[in-house]
Structures are given as C-alpha cells and as structure tokens.
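Predict the assembly for these two chains.
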Amino acid sequence: MTQPGTESWRDVPAGGTVLLPGSTERNLTGSWRTKLPVIDFDACTHCMICWVMCPDSCFKTAEGTLQSVDLDHCKGCGICATECPVKCIEMVPEERD
Amino acid sequence: MVDTQERPASGDMAAPATSTAIAVNGGEAVAYALRQIEPEVVAAYPITPQTLIIEKFAEYCADGLVRTEYINVESEHAALSACVGASAAGARAITATAGPGLALMFEMLGVASGMRLPIVMHLCTRALSAPLNILGDHSDAMAMRETGWVMLSGSSPQEAYDLALVAQTIAEHPDVMLPCANLVDGFMVTHAVERVDVLPDDVVREFVGEYEPETSLLAEGSTATYGALDFRDYYFEHRRQQEAALYRSQPVVEEALKRFGEISGRSHKIIEPYMMDDAEVVLVLMGSAEGQVHAAVDAARDAGLKAGALRIRLLRPFPTEAVAEALSGARVIGVLDRAIGFGSVDNPLLSDVKSALWDQSARPLTKGFVYGLGGRVVTLGQFNQAFDELRTVLETGETPGDPTYLGLREDGEVPA
C-alpha cells in the first residue's frame, strides 16, 4: 500500500484523480502473494515471454537475459509459469512470518 | 406560436435579452435548452416521463441541428456510465432519467460525484415501484439526496428551462466540479404545456460558455488516471474534499441564478418565499404544487390566518441558513413531503427543515404532511386542510407526531 503523505484533505487532487504516471510503482503489491515464482535458470531460454506476459512488469532483465523477479510487486498470479514454453518457472508456496 | 417581446428590466439588472415566447411542455422546454447548450455527449435511456426530453433531443440530432454525440445505451446504468466516461474525457455530458431509471443509475451517481465530474442530469421525478407506477412524486429525488449531487428543483416548464441552463454553469464552475440534477416534476411539469420564454441561442451559449476542465483524460499531454483505487490511505480525504465542494457550491448557485436573472429578467432564488413577511403559519414544499399552495395561502389569509409558503429550489446542498432565516418569524411550520422516508424519524423534506431549525433560539412547532404519492391528484382542498390543521396547532400549541396524509383514502371516505 502507498504510504500516505502529510498533505491536508484540502490539497489532494480532486476526485482521487492520479495526475502523474508511474504511481503503481509506489504501490507495493508483493504482500498479496501466496506463491513465489522460482526460475530454473539452467532450463530458461531467455525467450522473454514471461517478461511480456507479466501484468505487473516484474521480470528484470539485463543485456537481453532474464535476471530476477521484482518481489515488491509480484502478486504471485502464476501467469508466467503458465505461459513459459519450457516450463522453467515453478510457483512455490511461500511461507511468511 | 411566436411572440417576441422585451422583458422588463427590474432593479439593478442590466437590460435582459430579447426572449421568444413558445408554448411547450416541460420536457420540450428542457430539450430546447439542451439544443442551445449543444453538449458533446448525451447518453440516455428512454423512461416515462423523461421521454419527452430525449425524443425531442434525438429529433434535433437527426435533423442536424446539433453536433452532439447521442449515445443509445442499453440501460440507465450504462447511460450514466457513458456520461462518466465522456466527462472524464473532457466532454460536456448530459443525461436524463426518471424514477426506476434513477434507481438503476444509483452506483454511478456516487461515481459521478466522487470523481468530481460536472455531468448534468434532468430528473423527471417519478414514483418508485412497487406497486408499479409511472406517475409523479419525489421518491426518486429524495433517495438521491445523499449521493453528492447539486440538486435544483423547479415548479414549471419555464423553470425547467431556466434551471437546465443554470445547472450547467454550476456543475462546471471550478469551485464546484460536481454533477448537478435539475428536478422536473414528472407529468405536472414534464407534460404541462405552458408559455415558456426562451432566450436567443447566442445568449445561452455565452451564458453557459465552453466547458474547459483543468484536467481530463484526453487533454493533450494528459497523464491523469481517473477512477483509480483509493483505499484507507486517501479515500477519507477525497470524500471530505467532495463534501466541502458541495457546500461551497451554494454561493455559486446563488451567483449563477443572479447572473441568469440579469440576462433573462427572471430572478430565481435558492428558496422561494410567498407572503412570508409577517407569516406565522407556513407551508414548506418543493416542486410543482406551488400554485395550489399559494392559493391555499391566499384562502387562509382571507380567513384571518397569517399564512405563508416557502418553496425549496436548492435541495442539495440544503440551504440551512437561508431556510432558518426565512422561517425565523414563523410559529407553526407544516412541511409537505411528496415521498415517504420509510422508517425515518421524519419524511425527507420535514427532516431537512427540522434539522435546519434545531439550532435556532426559538424553535417553532412543526407538522408533517404527505401528499401526491404515485401521481395522486393534488388539490387546493388538500392544502386548505393542511392550513386548517396548522391553525389548530397554532391555537392549541400542540402538534401531533404523526404526519397527515392529504388525499389518502381512510376508512371508506372519498379523499378530498
């Protein structure tokens, strides 16, 4: 959840309109997750289909290769695991304190 | 029929524009206003008694008299949803509905006001079902009171036209930016043919101006997101801000009515007093029963009662101070409700009026009346009866807690 600022109710944008783009980056949805995508990098072909399909843009890349998952935003929806053509992503139940 | 005439200037008003008198019903009068406003979008679903407005306006579209995008929708929920989308996109959007149609819009009523979209709705007030009824009362409007809309109520086709224009400028005022409803009494106003003085098109266009929102979805360079999730972090602040905007709209309403008076010669106020200067016994009402209530005031005065009437033109935000001030000299106040507030302490209008009076140093006695539900014929005799009962309250100093139901069949009697 976004951390509220200190602005008064008088100063917030009318109607809850979000004036600037990119605000979802501040909305940490990782806590919604019950299952964690675990990537078997030995099997991964770096085809980037997971990167394309992820609704939260969580797959981090560098120099054309898949690197990691942004766990602050991954909701654990499992679309990546379903779409992966070589089935190298496994959704693993995640235990939390 | 066309009869062009100069309207007389009064007081400090500038010379009003040349009006044209036409004979139309209230629905067509609103449609005439819509043609002059020529909004970008009208989305509406036909429902009695609103059909007169949207059929006539559809004709204007078909005849090429307006360039409005007229959206035929599958329901009233969709009608107001389409207006929400259009308004967020930066368009001037208008809808019209009645009774059950308003009920089907309910979810979107709060979306329109919560998103601060200046949509205008022409609500042809109609009974809510069941039993199934298509005729006029205020059940729908009263159910809408707490959805955050500015609500204006007229009593004649002329006022339906006037307030249709005024509503536009109120909703879109930068200090307000809230949807506004123009309450047009179903059948009694929508279907009543009367003389209506209409302003020239160019005068209306100058009065309503262009709608130019500060932000919108489709504005060039806009990065705004409308209708985003708003949880425990900011929802409270946005609701508080919305409430403040609604209260802030009252002076805007007053200013808009004043400005309209300057161009039309018709100076409407947020409340409409009649014979109130020395009135001790007052009937408060909203809507089209005004003529009969005034006749009943005259009859009561002839019978020696210091009677008066007060019509509420601005239902939301409720003009608390103006109502309390207008009623400050009254000793007995009867409030006419054309709706039942099921299970409430009082019926809707009585509840508002009593709340407005609570903080006054000398609180008058009040009495509730219910009349005209589901199109039940409203008669002068009913309001004569009301003043008779108020006279008894004045003389005895006691007021019964239950409302009187005017024109209701009781124990086999034929209603007055």
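The interface with chain A takes residues 114-117, 177, 215, 223-228, 230-238, 240-242, 244-245 of chain B (CB under 8 Å). The longest strand of chain B covers residues 19-25.
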